[in-house]
Every structure is written in C-alpha cells, then in structure tokens.
Write a structure and sequence with these properties.
two-stranded antiparallel sheet; single chain; eight-stranded parallel sheet; binds NADP nicotinamide-adenine-dinucleotide phosphate; alpha/beta; TIM Barrel; 11 helices
C-alpha cells in the first residue's frame, strides 16, 4: 500500500510521491497511457505540471490520456505552476489569471487542486498576487496554493498578504543535491556544506506545515544527469548496490526511499517516464531505511559529518 501524506494543512491526502510530468510531452499515446495507468495502479494520485513543460504540450497530452483511460477527475489531484516566462518571471495578477485559464483549458478541467508560483519574481507585489489568488479561489478555479524555489522570507512576505495558507514549496532535493540538510548537520563550521543557501527552508517548512516537494530527485547538479550508475560517483553507487541488495530494492527505488525516510514528510516529484521505474519506487518506499543507512548514503554522496 502506498503511504500517503497531507499536503500542508490542506486536507488533500496525497500519495507520498507524485508523478512529475515535465518530460512527458514527446511520449506516444500508448506509452503515456501505460505510465499514468501504472502510476495509478501503484497508488500515485497526485500529478505535477507547469504551464511551461513542453510549452503546454505536457498538460495537453496528460488530459488526453486521462480521457482515454476514463479516469474520474475527482479521484486524482492536479497541481500546476505559473510565473516563468521567456527571459523573465511574472507574478502580475494579469499573468497569473491568464496562466490559470490556459492551464485549465489544456488540462481539460474546471479546477486545479494546487497552483504553485514557479520561481520567485523579485518584482512580486504581494497584494497583487493576493488579489489573483482570492479571485481564483472564490470562483473555484484553484483550491489550494503554494510556491516553488522560495526561501522562508519570501514565503513570509507573500503569506503576510494572503488570507489562505501556502501549502507547498517545491525545491530541488535528492541524494546528490542536499543543501537543504547540509548546513543543518554542519552548523557553524568553515566547511562549504555549512553555508546556508536557502534560509533554513527545511526547518521553516516543517515548522509551518508546508510540504516540501523535492524536484529532480535522481539528478546531480542542475540537470547534469542521473547519478545512478554514473561513473562520476563510484563510492555512492557501491554503497547503494550494497544496501539495495540488503533491502531488496533497486537503486532507482532507494533514491526516493532515502528522501521519503526524512521525517519532514516530503513529497518527492518523480520525473521518470518509465512505468517499470515507477513500480520500483513504489516498492522501495515500503522499506524502513535505518538511521545509520540513511547517513551512510548521505556520506557516500560526498558529505561530511563533523
Ligand atoms: N519546481 C521546479 O523548479 C522544478 C524543476 C524541475 C523539475 N520539476 C518537477 O520535478 C519532476 C522531476 O524532475 P526531473 O524529471 O528533472 O527529475 P528526475 O525525476 O530526477 O529525473 C527523471 C529522469 O531521470 C531518468 N532516470 C531516472 N532513474 C533512472 C535510472 N535508474 N537510470 C537512468 N535514468 C533514470 C528518467 O529516465 P526515464 O524517463 O527513462 O525513467 C528521466 O529522464 C519534473 O517532472 C517536474 O514535475 C520542478
């Protein structure tokens, strides 16, 4: 059985990992149907989109697949994002409202369960965003709101103008990208891991009951590649091989089980287009990774403990 979590304090009971649809734009109808059907079969009920994925294509092909598979809209949660434009970020009321109309039309639905602001717009005027969010919630087009790639001060700034609570913050996190935890385990040291790059987002989001949604969980760097079986990371892969044999899971699965083991109750956004890998992740999330093994993987990824 897939474990579930509550998204923030929203009342949404979501699968502990979601399917990220960023890479689905070029899939054949059959392959996409199999990916979505498999995801539902293993218990994934939450799907992550953005208006820019495939320039809108990812949302369109997703809606077509949901129709072919005859999936009841109310049985799934749909999340999308807006705010990134060609060469700039835009949290203006007009852009948010237009974006949501585009998203709803492409996803062929009357409402979004969650709308995220994709990347901080430094020209953001919180009152203007509040007007847009209020309108969208009042007319029923968006039920819940969140952000992505925000630090705690940016969340506070926006939250201060909003009547509704922000429920999610989507951030890059995975075995090979751990700034969210690094500075917390090396507080006040002169090591580079000690640098707080995000304003203690992890602790802040836990305190405020904002669900962190880790993106690109299999990647290293900023879309540099997949760390699994990559020749750049022999030590990590050796440790993963050893522990995977012990727990009876694959490295793909372990990469997500490692994130899900963190008590912050994060909701990994898995971007695989391969149904087999989705099954491996669902299987691996059933294991109870021990504390020493969690830290062993963390150290094998090149991190220090004081
Ligand atoms: N908020 C943001 O700013 C932001 C940014 C980026 C992404 N996202 C969200 O996060 C989701 C995930 O991002 P992502 O797709 O970059 O990350 P990901 O889930 O880390 O990577 C998926 C990619 O890794 C490949 N892969 C996974 N396991 C593999 C293995 N064992 N061996 C070889 N290849 C493997 C997949 O190939 P296969 O398809 O063949 O399995 C796929 O190409 C996106 O869909 C999107 O929803 C959000």
């Amino acid at each position: 059985m897939m474990k579930t979590l509550q998204l923030g304090t929203s009342g949404i009971v979501a699968s502990e990992f979601s399917l990220g649809c960023m890479r689905t734009g070029g899939m054949t109808a059959d392959a996409l149907d199999e990916l979505i059907a498999t995801s539902l079969e293993v218990g994934v009920n939450f799907f992550d989109h953005a208006d820019i994925y495939g320039a809108g294509k990812c949302e369109e092909v997703f809606a077509a697949s949901i129709k072919r598979l005859k999936i009841d809209r109310s049985s799934i949660y749909l999340q999308s994002k807006c705010g990134i434009r060609q060469g700039f970020f835009d949290f203006s009321k007009e852009h948010i409202l237009n974006s949501v109309d585009g998203i709803l039309s492409r996803l062929n639905t009357d409402y979004l369960d969650v709308l995220l602001l994709h990347r901080p717009d430094t020209l953001m005027e919180p009152e203007e965003v509040a007007e847009a969010f209020n309108h969208l919630q009042t007319i029923g087009k968006v039920r819940n709101f969140g952000v992505s790639n925000f630090n705690p001060s940016q969340i506070e700034l926006l939250q201060a103008s909003l009547p509704m609570k922000l429920q999610a913050n989507q951030l890059q996190f995975g075995i090979m990208h751990t700034p969210l935890v690094d500075h917390g385990v090396t507080v006040n040291m002169k090591h580079t891991n000690s640098v707080d790059r995000d304003g203690s987002d992890l602790e802040y989001c836990r305190l405020k009951q904002i669900t962190i949604q880790p993106w690109s969980p299999f990647q290293f760097g900023f879309f540099e590649g997949v760390f699994i079986d990559h020749p750049k990371f022999p030590e990590l892969n050796a440790v993963l091989d050893k522990l995977c044999a012990e727990y009876g899971v694959t490295k793909t699965g372990m990469a997500i089980a490692w994130i899900q083991r963190h008590p912050a109750k994060m909701q990994s956004v898995v971007g695989s287009t391969n149904p087999g890998r989705i099954k491996e992740v669902a299987e691996a999330c059933k294991i109870d990774l021990s504390r020493p093994h969690w830290y062993e993987i963390y150290r094998a990824a090149g991190n220090i403990l004081p």
